[in-house]
Each structure stands twice: as C-alpha cells, then as structure tokens.
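Notes, p. 3: input format for complexes.
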Amino acid sequence: MAQDLPLTNAKRAPKGGVEVRGLSRRFSGRTIIDNVDLTIAPGEFVALLGHSGSGKSTMLRALAGLDPDVEIAGGLTVPDATSVIFQDARLLPWQRVLTNVRLGLRRQDGGNLAVAALGEVGLTGRETAWPGDLSGGEQQRVALARALVREPELLLADEPFGALDALTKISMHKLLRELCAAHSPAVLLVTHDVDEAVLLADRTIVLHGGRIVLDETVKLPNIRDRADPEFVGHRKRLLDGLGV
Amino acid sequence: MSAWGTVRIRAEKPIPFLRLLGPVLLLVVWGVASATGALDPRTLPPPWQVVSRAWQLIADGVLQRALLASVQRSMTGLGLGVLFGIGFSLISGLNRWGEAIVDGPLQIWRATPVLAVIPLAIYWLGLGEQMKITLICLTTMIPIYINTSAAIASVEKRFVELAHTIRLTHWEFVRYVVIPGALPGFFTGLRLSAVSAWLVLVVVEQSNTINGLGYMVGEARVNGQVDIIAVGLVVYALLGLTTDGVLRLLEKRVLSWRKTFR
Ligand SMILES: Nc1ncnc2c1ncn2[C@@H]1O[C@H](COP(=O)(O)OP(=O)(O)OP(=O)(O)O)[C@@H](O)[C@H]1O
Ligand SMILES: [Mg+2]
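Output follows (506 residues plus adenosine-5'-triphosphate):
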C-alpha cells in the first residue's frame, strides 16, 4: 500500500470502544438476543460468530443505531464516529464511485480524502465509474473506502466478505488488516468464516441462543500462520462453541 | 443456441430509425388504398394530396403560425405541470402530513374527465389563454405526480439505513438519495404527461380559439376541407413522436447508470 497517502499517515491513538449492558431484542415474542453484555476496547478487533439466524446482524444493527425497537436495560455507549459496512456493498447506484465515498463527509478536503481512500483500496482511476460497472469485490472495496474515509473510532462490519471468492477474500483480509493498523478503529466483524475470525481478530465471541456462549482472546502474534498449533486450537474451540 | 438459454442477454445492436418501421408501413397501406380506389378521397384524401396541401399551408405561413401558437400553449402548460407535479410529489412523498393533504384531492382530480371540467374552467377563467394553459397544466401534472410520488415511496429501506449510517442531513438525503432514486419514475410520468399535453391541447383549442392547430382543423371542418384536417392529424402525430423521442433521449442520458433490459 502506498504509505504516503494522507489517510495512511493519520496514525492515531485508538479511542472510543463499545460498552453495552443488557441488550435484548424480541421479534413478536421470540427472543433473539437475551440480555447480552458486550465490551469492545478502543482499537480492539472483535469477531462475532454464530449460526445463521443466531442474531448477529440484529446485534450489529442495534449497535449501529439502526434498530429503534431494541431494548437496552443498562445503557449503550458507541462512539459518534462509527462506520458500518453492510453485507451488500450498499452503494447508491445513481451516484458515481467517488460521490459514494465522500457523501456525508463534512470536510473541505473531502474530495481529496475520498480519492486517497479509493487509492488505499486499490481503486485509483475508477472514481467516475458507476457502481453497477464494478465487480462484486470492487464494490465491497468501495464500501470499505467509504467506511474508512470517515476515520471511524468504531467499524461495524456485517459479513463484508461473505460473497467474495477465496482469492479476493485473501487480498481483502490483508487490506483490512493494514487499514486497521493504520487507523486503529475498534472493529466488530460479523462472520461465518471461522478461519477469517482467527486470522483477523484480537478476540472472538460466539452468539448462540441469544447469549454470548464463548468469548476468547486470540493468543497469536500479528502475523498469523494457519499451521500454528494455537491457531488450530483456537479454531477448534470456536467450532466446538458453535456446536459443529 | 442451446435449449436452456432462450432469454437474450446482449443488448441488441441499435438499427437506426427502426422505430419508424411501423408508421412507414401504415403510410404505405394508406397510399396503396388510395391509389387503388379502395379509400374514398372524401373519407381520407391520398397522402400525396395531404403533402401538397401541407406545402401550400407552409408557403402561406398558416401552418407555422398555427404550430407556433400550439407549441407555445402546450409547452407552457406542460412546463407548469412538471413544476407542480414535482412539487406535489415531494410534499406528498416526503411527509405523511403532506400526503394526507395533497394526495386525496389529486386522486379525485385524476378521476375527473377534463372534458367535464371545461365548462367550469371557462366560467371561471374565461375563454382565453389562461383557461387553456391552466387545463393543460392541471392535466399533465397528474402522471408526473402519480409516478414520482410512487417512486419516492419505494426508495429502498436499505438506502435509508445507509443514509443514517453516513450521517446525511435530511436535505442531503433528499438531494442524493431520494431525488435521483425517484428519477426513473419521474421520467415515466413525464413521457405520459407530454403525450397528454398534446391530447388536452386539441380539446381546448376546439373551443373558441383564434389560432393554433386545433383552430386550423376546426375551420377546415366547417369548410369541409378534409385534407387540411389530415394535415392537422399528421402534425399532431409528428409532434407526439418527436416529443417522446426527445424525452427518451434525455432519459437515456440522465439515467445512464441504469442496467436494464433495453
Ligand atoms: N425484522 C424482523 N422481523 C422478524 N424477525 C426478524 C427480523 N429481523 C430478524 N429477525 C429474526 O431474528 C433472527 C436473527 O436474525 P439475524 O438477521 O440477526 O441473523 P444472523 O445471525 O445475522 O444470520 P445470518 O448469519 O444468516 O445473517 C432470525 O431468526 C430472524 O428471522
Ligand atoms: Mg446476518
């Protein structure tokens, strides 16, 4: 990655994490999330796993402030500067790529920052393309640029790489790690992919039956090797926690 | 081609003026019917007589004057109709109080035939230009309102959520999400409106007008000049086609982001 870009240079001390006490969500009597507590330290990368339908998206939407009907018994703290990446790239099809990235940025140099952010995700030269003309992976990278250009203190990502092929996934993982190292946001990454979780996260949690049934720090160095026994062990404990 | 792939994916190569095929065929049928005597010239004169009559009307300057008066009328009416249509659809689409106030009356007006309103319009506004433009405006505003407000209402929830997460102000949300998202619906409405602008024009020009195409045709009817009536009809048809063509072109340019069947 180009190191001289303004965004990459903006290394900041991490600040702003998540603190939620007693989060519950019921859909017409069915309890999906049952009085859950969750703390994410500033700059910490947490992966959230769980079966399909276990309430991962529900949890993330609650933290993103997208769910007005969620019950919070003991208070919720999330930073103002929170970015969300959805499972679909969710680009406005009628705005060009650059506009999609810079929309809502209230800064004089917003345009330059957006151009730089597109450079960071390897999309220099595609500024004036329509989102519909990009590949799925490219669209997802635009979404990543849009999230990071806001210099978030918290990044909420709902299976952002779920629809990508294995190769694109690998390069996106690398990109996400680099960008997180540069910008140090706290991250909550929802994922189905156990390897992805162990590869990227500082901590993994598993949601099951409306509660967090497993919460474990990843005791691995920053550069991770899938063959490392600790990697294999953590992976196995996650799969056990998921009941696989 | 394999049996399972019957839906064509590649956009067909455009053939220039292909759209004119149908109208040209119609013209051929008309010509042949006239030449063989199957069509009585008192019912409808042959195309060449209509053409020579048109030339004569152009040479005398009659057609241009009529055309100018009519185009001015319908375009003023349509322009105002577009403004009101957009205005009402924003009021109704963005705010439920606005919808409660605006939508009902417009639905009632939509169900009312213009012909039935003309006497009242004349009683209120007189026989002049004001009445004609008002009626065109009120009529053309309806398709725009219906289609644009429906398009606003169906802007996807997921884009509303996105707007929330990137902290757009209400105005930015309207400007960057709602309006461009509703533009396809607006164009559908606009094309319907443009057609109805010409339809209403014909009707209002029949009543006590001293210029315009409707007047020209009306006079011809009184004098039994079928060929002038035919010229009028052809001009109306051309106007309709041209307007639609221009709007299609505009739509294609403005909505170039869309990936659609055609
Ligand atoms: N708006 C809603 N109305 C009713 N039920 C809902 C609603 N949203 C979610 N649910 C239910 O809540 C449960 C959890 O949904 P959620 O989308 O959070 O699952 P998830 O863990 O993200 O699953 P996946 O991995 O498949 O994305 C599901 O059973 C779903 O049917
Ligand atoms: Mg989900």
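The two ends of chain B are 21 Å apart (CA to CA).
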